[in-house]
Structure formats: C-alpha cells, structure tokens
Amino acid sequence: MRLLPCIKSYDEGVDHSKQIDREIKEWIKTYNEAIKLLLLGTGESGKTTIIKQMKILHVKGFSHSERTAMIPHIRFNTHEAIYEIIQNMPVLSIGLQNAKHVRAQQYLLKVGPEGPQEYTEEYFDNVRDLWQDAGVRECFKRANEYQLIDSAEYFLDRIDLIGKEDYVPSDADILRCRRKTTGIQKIEFKVKVPKSMHGGTQDFWMLDVGGQRGERKKWIQVFEGIHAIWFVVACSDFDQTLREDNSQNRLKEALILFEDVWQSRFLLEAGIIVFLNKQDLLETKIKQGRSIAPYFPKYNHFEASGDEYTRTKLFIRNLFVNLTTKKRERRHIIASAERFVVLEASRARECYFHFTTATDTHNVRTVFRDVHQMILTHILSNIGVY
C-alpha cells in the first residue's frame, strides 16, 4: 500500500477568519486616521450651524475673541432682517400702523441693504420702533413670500441686548448668525469611541461646502475618502423659494439634490444620514395654520397618525425615503453648476434619518452620539466585523 504525503487540509472557515483578522489589523492601523464627514444640502439648510455645534461640543467652544468677531455679523443679520421686512411691505400692500414710525422707516431705507457704517444708538432706536409696529409684524408673518433669514425674529427680539456697547454674543446668538458659505470649510475634532468598538478616541474631519447652486460645482473636490454624508434638509422651507431662484420651491430643490447625491457612484462607499432639520420652525409654521398641501398635493392622501405637525414631518421624511427605493431611469446628466454631477450607483445602500433642530445643542449632541456609532458600525461592517 502506497503512503501519500501528509497534506494540510484547507479549511475555508479558518482562512476567512484569518482574512478578517488581517483586515481588523489594517483597521486598527488606520484607526487613528480621521473619519471624514461631508455636510451637503441646499443653501440655508443648517449645515454651518452643525459645524458650530461640533465646535461647542468637541472643541471647547468659542473664545472671547471669536465671540467679539461675530458682533458685526450678528448686527448685520439684524439689519438685513428689518430692512427686508420694510422693503417688502409695499410689495405685499402692508402699511405702517403707527404714523410716528414713518421717519424710522425712511431712515432705514436710506441706510440701504448693506447696513450703516456705524451702528449708533439712533440706528438701534429706529429698529426698535419699527419692530414694535403692527404693520411690520404683519409683514414678518408673511416672510415665506419673500427672502428673510430664519433668525430674523430671534435677533430683532434681542435688539436691546445687541445694541449695547459691551455686547458679547452667546452660543445661541452665534448658532443663529447667518453667513453665506463659499468654498470649503473644515473643522477637526476628537470623539471618545465606545469600549465595545475598541475604545480610545477617534479623529473626525467635518467638511462644509456651500449649498447654493453656484457652489455645488466645487463639491467633487472633497468626495474622495469621505466616510459619511450628512445631508441636511430645512423642513420648514416647504413654502419658500430659493434665494437664487424665486421660481423654485426650496424643499423640492432639496429632493432633487438628494436624489443626485443618493445615486452618485462617487459617494457609493459613504454612509448617508439625512438630517430633517429646523423641526422647531416647522412646528411653529404648522401651529400658525400653514400647510404643506398646497405645495405638495400628495400630502392630502398621506396616511399617518398624530397631529398636523407629526403628519407633516413624517410626510417629508417619506418623500426622501421614496427616493432611496426609486429605480432611476438611465439618462445622461450634463455637468453644470445648476445640477449636481452624478454617475448612477448600482449597489444597494442604507439611509438613516434623524429629525433635528441644529440650533439645539442637546438635540445635536444626542443625534451625533447615535450617528457616531452608526458610522463606526458602517466602517467595521465593510470589513466583515459587524
């Protein structure tokens, strides 16, 4: 009887386990490298506010010099708020209710849209008088019919504080300060990792790019190496139009943009989290009697339990969920500043949704904790650990 040489048998299970061990070692080796998060969304959706929240939560907040540097921007926000309101009063056929305020109106219109060279006591007195006028308040209530920053009421209600010589902005003031994002902004921070996921700390890079149409052509520059997309939606914008295109509904623009991002093969490996943002403003609008139905007629047939606000926010979420399951018709898409550049993705993906109020630090802290764990799980699942 012939003896065969001893040959070690191949165990597929053992080989797969070794492969995973190698990949875990590779993961641990690169674990100290930054996880890159990219904030996307239309203009004024709240992306920059989230960047500011990360600074408050993970980078020791704002220094005194950073706070004082925000004063001119906050005062300008206050000016553009009152200026836009009084400029649009005749357009909406609304007059001042107090004749004594005509002089204040003329004063501010003469100042112009760029604001005064110096914010004097006389300036703040005129703003204060106008903000107390019933006609100005009526025009403010119809702000969805023209372009007005979300923080208008917040800052105008605090005109006495903002006008003080020793004014120093609070976190809440800074979070609500609106400045158009141009180019690419980045914040770096560290976050503790749960012990169940090896513990230690993890570096994060969060990138914010401008959301207006003209800024989107720059997005492709930051796609490489992105681990997760945070797509931010201003849910309260359902009855407003774009600042750069008065013919386009803001929420409809967000849906178009999200579909492009969802289908992009450039972002195929990135996890996608949708922040259904500005829930506080959405709830306020609904309580004031406004409805999403005139802008999205399908809402009339949407079935969901709860009050009008709950039904509205669930309907908006459903609009985005439907896009993640929709089979897109293959078509050539032309690259332009008006439309995001995509090449169709084919692999199955998951999308996570969170209802958020970006100006609420506690809310953002809670959501980030959940999202942080999801991102780590997503990365580890890619190498077969989860």
TrEMBL record:
Query: Which residues does the record give as GTP binding sites?
Result: 44-49, 150-151, 175-181, 208-212, 277-280, 358
InterPro entries per UniProt: Gprotein_alpha_su (IPR001019), GproteinA_insert (IPR011025), P-loop_NTPase (IPR027417)
Which parts of the sequence bind Mg(2+)? T48, T181
Please list the GO biological process terms of this entry: adenylate cyclase-activating dopamine receptor signaling pathway; sensory perception of chemical stimulus
Q: Which GO terms describe its cellular component?
A: cytoplasm; heterotrimeric G-protein complex
Q: Which UniProt keywords apply?
A: GTP-binding, Magnesium, Metal-binding, Nucleotide-binding, Transducer
Gene Ontology MF: a single term: GTPase activity
What CDD domains does its record include?
G-alpha
Cross-referenced Pfam families: G-alpha
Q: What does this protein do?
A: Guanine nucleotide-binding proteins (G proteins) are involved as modulators or transducers in various transmembrane signaling systems.
Q: Which family does it belong to?
A: Belongs to the G-alpha family.
- Subunit and interaction comment: G proteins are composed of 3 units; alpha, beta and gamma. The alpha chain contains the guanine nucleotide binding site.
What is this protein identified as? Guanine nucleotide-binding protein G(F) subunit alpha
